[in-house]
Design goal:
single chain; alpha+beta; Methylamine Dehydrogenase, Chain H; Neuraminidase; 45 strands
Length: 722
C-alpha cells in the first residue's frame, strides 16, 4: 500500500459510523439483566466494621478505600476453592456477606461457608438438600430453616439440627411467611438480637377451602392442593411461637382474638427482652403495636394504636434503637404520606421526624450512635410540578432535631448503602439520560467523595427509539405521570398505532426517572415494529400519597379505567396517533384493567392481551381484596360493578387471555369463568395457557410469551403499508 492511500484511509476512519444492530425480542428478554443492562459493580457493599468496600471483578473479590484510587484484590477464585473441602468447586466468585474485616460468609452446594482471610480456612455448616427458608443469625451463625412444613435450627459446632416443630401437615405450616406475603411479610422466622431465641409463624389453614391446580408433569396428571382464602370466606389462623435455644422450649404469644386477625411486622427490642407484633384487624381499619414477654408469651402493653376509616396497611416493623432504651422509630401514612415518627415507650412521647408532600420509601441505615438515619424517599412536590414520585433521593434525618437534609440533587432514581461507621454512602443512581452511576458521598452533606463507575449506554450499538416522561390530566384533576416511547424512525407527519401497557394497581409504580424510564426492553423492540408504546400511572398506583391510592377503595378498577381513558384522550389529541389502531396489554391487575377497558369501552381499542387477569374480585384472596374492596357481604354493589364476567357479552374487540396452568396467585378459574360466559353468549375470544407456570411466565418461556402477546397485537394493529 502506498503512503497517500494509507493517509486517506486513516483520515476517513474517524468518520465511519458503526453499523447499528436491530434489537431482537429474544435479546430484549433474555439479555435484559445481563448484556443489555448498564454495567454494575457486582456484589458492591461495605465491609462490616471497616470504612472500605468490596465488589467482584472477574474471578477476584476486590477491596476499595475512599482515599485511594487503586482497588486491591482480597482473594481470588482459585484461593477460595482451595479452602473448600467440598469436591464441588465454585465456578464463579459467590455473593458474600461480611462478618468483620477478616471474615465473610457465602452459600455454596447446600452449605453455608465462613471463610477467614488470614488463615485461608473455611468452616462449613451443611443443611439437608431440601432445606428451604434459610435464616441465619448474623453473629452466632445459627441457621433456621424449614423441611416441608416444619422448622429446624442448625447451630454452629453441632452435628445435628434441632427440630423445633413436629405438627406440620396438610393445613399447618411452621416457619414460613403468612397472610400471603401481604403487609410487608416476606419470611417466617425472626431471630432475637443475641440469637438466644427464635420467633416464628405458625399458620393453621385447615379451615380454608382447598383449591386444586393440575400438574401435567405426571402421567396421568395429578393435582396439587393449595389453601386459598377467597374474599369473604374463612381465613387462616396465625400464631407466633418463641423457641428458646438454651432451654429447648417453645411457647406461643397469647395474641387474643379474633382468630383471623393479621399478625404482622414482628420486631425485637434492642436488648432482646421484648418482642413486638403489629396486630391488624381483618377489616384493616385498626392496628396495635403490642409488646410481649417472650419468656411467658404474655402481653405487656399496647405501645401505639392507629385507625383509618378506609384502610391501613402496615408495611414496616417498629425499629427499636440500640443507644436509646425504650425509643423506637415507626413508619406511618397518618398525615397522608409515609413518614418517620420517633416514640418513647416510657413517657409516650412522639415526634414526627419527616413531613411534607413526599414519602419515605426505604430506610438505608443508621450511624453507630443512632444520631441520624439515612432514608430513600420521593422528591417533594414543587410549585408547578405535579408529582415527585418519579424520582427517588437520599435524605439524612437527624433524630434529635428532626432536621431533614436532601443529600442527592441530580434528577433521577438514587439508592444508597451506608458504611458501618456512618460516614459515607454508596449512591447508585440512574436517570432517563444517565444509564448508571455509582459514587461515594459524605453522609453529612451529600458531597461527592469518589466516583466508582460511570456506565456506558448498553443500547448504544442498537437501533432504538426515543423515550419521554410527561404528565396528563387524570379523572379528578390530578396530573398523572406517563411515558411515551417512539420508534427510531418516528416522523411528526406520520401515523402510528399505539400499544398501551397498563398495570395501575396499588403499590406499583411503572414511571420512574431511571434508565429506560421504568420500561422493559421488549417495549423498545415493540416500538421498532412501528408502535408508540404508552403507559400511565393512574390513581391507586404507588408513591403518590395515601389519598391518591385510597380513592379507589371499594371500586377496584373503575376510576383506574377512567384515568387510562384520559390517557387515550391525550393520545387522540396527538396528530401522529392513528386513533383507529390502539391496543392494550397488561398482566395481573393489568390483565383486569385490559379486560375492563375493552368491555367498558367497546370499539375504542383494536385489540387487547390480558395476562393472569383478575376477572372477579370475589375469587381473589382475602388479605388483598378485603383491604381495597371490603368483603362481598359488605360491598355487593362494588363487587358486582367490577365483576368482568358479568360484562363479557360487551366484548367486541379481539381479546387474547393468557394464564399459567399452576397460577396460585390469580387462579386459572378467573380466566375460565370469563371464557365460559363468552362461550355461552357467543362472544369470540382467544385463550392460551402456559402449562406448569405460575402467575408469571419466567425464563426462556418468556420469549414465547412475549412473541404470543406481540403477535396478537401485530395481527390487528400492524402499521399500514405506506
Amino acid at each position: 500500500m502506498n503512503r497517500p492511500t494509507a493517509f486517506l484511509l486513516a483520515c476517513a476512519l474517524p468518520f465511519i459510523v458503526p453499523a447499528q444492530q436491530a434489537l431482537t425480542l429474544r435479546d430484549a428478554i433474555l439479555k435484559a439483566g445481563t448484556d443489555l443492562a448498564p454495567e454494575r459493580m457486582k456484589g458492591l457493599q461495605w465491609i462490616e466494621g471497616s470504612p472500605t468496600y468490596s465488589y467482584v471483578k472477574e474471578d477476584r473479590l476486590m477491596r476499595g478505600t475512599l482515599g485511594k484510587s487503586m482497588d486491591l484484590p482480597i482473594i481470588d477464585l482459585a484461593t477460595l476453592n482451595a479452602a473448600i473441602t467440598d469436591t464441588v468447586k465454585l465456578k464463579a466468585m459467590p455473593p458474600v456477606t461480611w462478618l468483620d474485616p477478616e471474615r465473610f460468609r457465602f452459600w455454596h452446594h447446600g452449605s453455608f461457608h465462613v471463610h477467614t482471610l488470614a488463615s485461608r480456612s473455611t468452616v462449613v455448616t451443611r443443611l439437608p438438600d431440601d432445606a428451604a427458608n434459610e435464616d441465619i443469625h448474623p453473629t452466632t451463625g445459627a441457621i433456621a430453616y424449614t423441611l416441608d412444613k416444619d422448622l429446624y435450627v442448625q447451630e454452629e459446632g453441632r452435628q445435628r439440627p434441632t427440630r423445633i416443630t413436629s405438627d406440620g401437615t396438610d393445613g399447618i405450616v411452621n416457619g414460613q411467611s403468612v397472610h400471603r406475603q401481604e403487609y410487608g411479610i416476606t419470611k417466617g422466622t425472626f431471630w432475637s438480637p443475641t440469637g438466644d431465641k427464635l420467633a416464628f409463624y405458625r399458620m393453621d389453614e385447615r379451615m380454608v377451602t382447598p383449591y386444586q391446580l393440575e400438574d401435567i408433569s405426571t402421567r396421568p396428571s395429578t393435582f396439587d392442593k393449595i389453601r386459598y382464602p377467597m374474599a369473604g370466606d374463612s381465613s387462616h389462623v396465625v400464631t407466633v411461637g418463641i423457641y428458646d435455644l438454651k432451654s429447648g422450649g417453645t411457647n406461643f404469644l397469647r395474641t387474643g382474638t379474633p382468630a383471623d386477625q393479621y399478625l404482622t411486622n414482628i420486631s425485637w427490642s434492642a436488648d432482646g427482652q421484648f418482642i413486638h407484633v403489629v396486630h391488624l384487624d381483618r377489616a384493616t381499619e385498626h392496628l396495635r403495636v403490642v409488646r410481649y414477654d417472650p419468656n411467658t408469651g404474655s402481653e405487656i402493653a399496647t405501645l401505639l394504636t392507629e385507625s383509618d376509616t378506609v384502610y391501613l396497611e402496615p408495611q414496616h416493623p417498629a425499629h427499636f434503637l440500640k443507644t436509646r432504651n425504650g425509643q423506637y422509630i415507626w413508619q406511618s401514612q397518618r398525615d397522608g404520606w409515609n413518614h418517620l415518627y420517633r416514640y418513647d415507650v416510657a413517657n409516650r412521647e412522639v415526634r414526627q421526624l419527616t413531613k411534607g408532600s413526599w414519602s419515605v420509601t426505604d430506610v438505608v441505615g443508621w450511624d453507630p450512635k443512632e444520631s441520624f438515619v439515612i432514608v430513600e424517599g420521593t422528591a417533594a412536590i414543587q410549585p408547578g410540578r405535579p408529582s415527585g414520585a418519579s424520582e427517588t433521593h437520599l435524605y439524612r434525618v437527624d433524630l434529635r432535631s428532626g432536621k431533614v437534609s436532601r443529600l442527592t440533587q441530580e434528577a433521577g432514581t438514587h439508592h444508597g448503602k451506608l458504611s458501618s461507621d456512618g460516614t459515607t454512602l454508596i449512591d447508585s443512581w440512574s436517570s432517563l439520560t444517565v444509564p448508571g452511576k455509582i459514587v461515594l458521598r459524605d453522609s453529612r452533606t451529600g458531597g461527592l467523595m469518589k466516583e466508582l463507575l460511570t456506565a456506558k449506554d448498553p443500547l448504544a450499538g442498537y437501533t432504538v427509539g426515543t423515550m419521554e416522561l410527561l404528565t396528563v390530566a387524570g379523572e379528578n384533576g390530578d396530573r398523572l405521570n406517563a411515558r411515551l416511547i417512539k420508534p427510531s424512525y418516528f416522523k411528526e407527519d406520520g401515523k402510528y398505532p399505539v400499544l398501551i401497557y397498563v398495570y395501575n394497581g396499588p403499590h406499583v409504580q411503572l414511571i420512574t426517572n431511571s434508565f429506560l424510564g421504568g420500561a422493559s426492553l421488549w417495549m423498545l423492540e415493540a416500538a421498532e415494529r412501528g408502535y408508540l408504546v404508552w403507559t400511565v400511572d393512574g390513581h391507586g398506583s404507588g408513591n403518590r400519597g395515601r389519598d391518591f391510592e385510597q380513592i379507589i377503595h371499594r371500586h377496584l378498577g373503575e376510576l383506574e379505567v377512567k384515568d387510562q381513558m384520559r390517557g387515550v384522550d391525550f393520545l387522540r389529541s396527538l396528530p401522529y396517533v392513528d386513533t383507529t389502531r390502539i391496543g392494550v396489554h397488561g398482566w395481573s391487575f393489568g390483565g383486569h384493567m385490559t379486560t375492563a377497558m375493552l368491555t367498558r369501552h367497546p370499539g375504542v381499542f383494536k385489540a387487547g392481551v390480558a395476562g393472569g387477569p383478575v376477572m372477579d374480585w370475589g375469587l381473589y384472596e382475602v388479605m388483598y381484596t378485603e383491604r381495597y374492596m371490603d368483603t362481598p357481604q359488605e360491598n355487593p354493589e362494588g363487587y358486582s360493578a367490577t365483576n368482568l364476567v358479568n360484562v363479557a357479552d360487551r366484548l367486541q374487540d379481539p381479546l387474547l387471555i393468557i394464564t399459567g396452568g399452576k397460577d396460585d396467585v390469580v387462579l386459572p378459574e378467573h380466566a375460565l369463568r370469563f371464557l365460559k360466559t363468552c362461550v355461552d353468549k357467543g362472544v369470540p375470544v382467544d385463550f392460551f395457557e402456559y402449562p406448569g407456570h405460575g402467575h408469571n411466565v419466567r425464563g426462556r418461556d418468556r420469549v414465547h410469551l412475549m412473541d404470543k402477546v406481540l403477535g396478537h397485537l401485530d395481527r390487528y394493529l400492524a402499521p399500514r403499508a405506506e
